[in-house]
Amino acid sequence: MTTISKAGLDLIKSFEGCRLTAYVCPAGVLTIGYGSTGDHVTPGNTITQAEADALLLKDLARFEKGVSDLITVRLSQNQFDALVSFAFNCGNSALAESTLRKRLNAGEDPNTVAKQELPRWTSGGLAGLVRRREAEVNLFCAGGAQAAGDKSINLTANQDTLLKKQPLPGVELKDNEKSAVSKGKAYQGAKVLASRNGHTQVELPFGLGGWWLFDGHWDELDGK
Questions:
Q1: What is the reported pLDDT for 202?
Q2: 194 forms bridges with which residues in the sheet?
Q3: Which class would CATH give 6-140?
Q4: Angstrom distance (rounded) from CA 188 to CA 74
Q5: What is the tens place of the pLDDT at every residue in 39-57?
Q6: Which long-range contacts link 139-144 to residues 24+ away (Cβ below 8 Å)?
Q7: Please, are residues 78 and 139 in contact by the beta-carbon 8 Å criterion?
């Protein structure tokens, strides 16, 4: 699964703020660190800065997964980071139901979508949210074409398996949406594009195109 970069973390930290002693937030919930809540937060509890940073990374994992699952187009690292910040602030459900998501997945120009849609999420123009949305737009639209988690790997099938056009069980795919490969089949220099539903999307070398692979069937993806 793609993870947030330092730029995204720094943005989130700058707006969330950090308190190392447990407190009751305006919603009446015990909170600590960068807005962390749950059974691990008890009255009078104190933590170190390192523990606060670790809690933030743990809390962010479900929002990283949310963005990875909900956005089906390829994202740059900056775009991914900005959307994780948005989801962390507003919730995965807000992203799921948003016009922002629908327009991005429809293939519209991502920078235009971000500039038009993110500023709408300010709860009627609250100054802090206006500043946060502006920062997220600026990060989203910042240069750098490298895709989130973009890297090349060598792949080896550890059993007979399928190349898929969608990250779904093989029985749910039409014949023209899958291609069988045998155990031991290897691809050198495949480019990782995205992760979703226990699958990894790759661009295979030599013009073989983009396919989804079930992680457990490939040595290098199993257990990642």
A1: 86
A2: 201
A3: mainly alpha
A4: 22
A5: 999 999 999 999 999 999 9
A6: 139/7, 139/8, 139/11, 139/78, 139/81, 139/82, 139/85, 140/78, 140/79, 140/82, 140/83, 140/110, 140/111, 140/114, 141/78, 141/111, 141/114, 141/115, 142/78, 144/76, 144/77, 144/78
A7: yes
HSE, side-chain direction, 13 A CA sphere, residue 158? 10
Reported pTM: 0.65
Tell me the percentage of the chain whose pLDDT exceeds 90: 67
Q: Is 220 a catalytic residue?
A: no
**Residue type present at position 90:** C
| Catalytic residue selected from 16, 177, 203, 220 | 16
Report the C-alpha gap between 221 and 188 in whole angstroms: 14
CATH 2.60.40 fits 151-217, yes or no: no
CB 14 within 8 A of CB 23: no
Q: Is 173 helix (H, G, I), strand (E, B) or coil?
A: coil
pLDDT tens digits, one per residue of 124-162: 999 999 999 999 999 999 864 445 555 678 899 999 999
Q: Where are the domains of the chain?
A: 6-140, 151-217
Tens digit of each residue's pLDDT (9 = 90 or more) over 55-76: 999 999 999 999 999 999 989 8
